[in-house]
Amino acid sequence: MALKSSTEINKWYPVYTHARAEKKAFQALINKGIEAYLPLHRQLKQWSDRKKWVEEPLIKSYLFVNIREYEQTEVLMTPGIARFIYFSGKITSMPGRQIEELKLLMASSYELEITEENLQPGEKITIKAGPLKGLKGEIISYRSQKQLVLRLDDLGYSIIVHVASSLINRL
Length: 171
Description:
This protein has 171 residues and is an alpha+beta fold. The protein folds into 2 domains: 6-93, Alpha-Beta Plaits; 100-170, SH3 type barrels, CATH 2.30.30. Helices cover 16% and strands 41% of the residues. The chain has 3 helices and 14 strands. It has helices at 22-31, 72-76, 96-107, and strands at residues 11-17, 35-37, 40-46, 51-57, 62-67, 81-84, 86-87, 90-91, 112-115, 124-127, 136-142, 145-152, 157-162, 168-170. The protein has a 6-stranded antiparallel sheet, covered by helices on one side.
């Protein structure tokens, strides 16, 4: 069996979009046949005359594409896409496991909160029950509650999930 070169292997890449263009860019990628993921969450919006539930991107101006290296130009030529995310001078990719964990979080009924704070590493834990069973993370002290943090280090973001301390095990 021959080994595939790095250009023949699909990887997940975070992509930065133009402001408020996440949904249109996502749809344009799908229309091109490119596998993309845009985590959305429901949020109650208040206008002067009404309230309405809307689906907003979980991480503003970000979406994720699962492509081969040579498809990067095609992604950049998509309306709404601004650029790939770079770290140490090269385009960064993410482990598929992080995308799967993000999808699991989005499918759960847990209240999620995105923060750009650089949360300090704490005690490592795993969730022992419920729909997030087996998910690993860290405990932080935030608003005096125990919460699970799933780090997305490649993006510089952390996702805070409100989880009862009775549902976690120390590692």
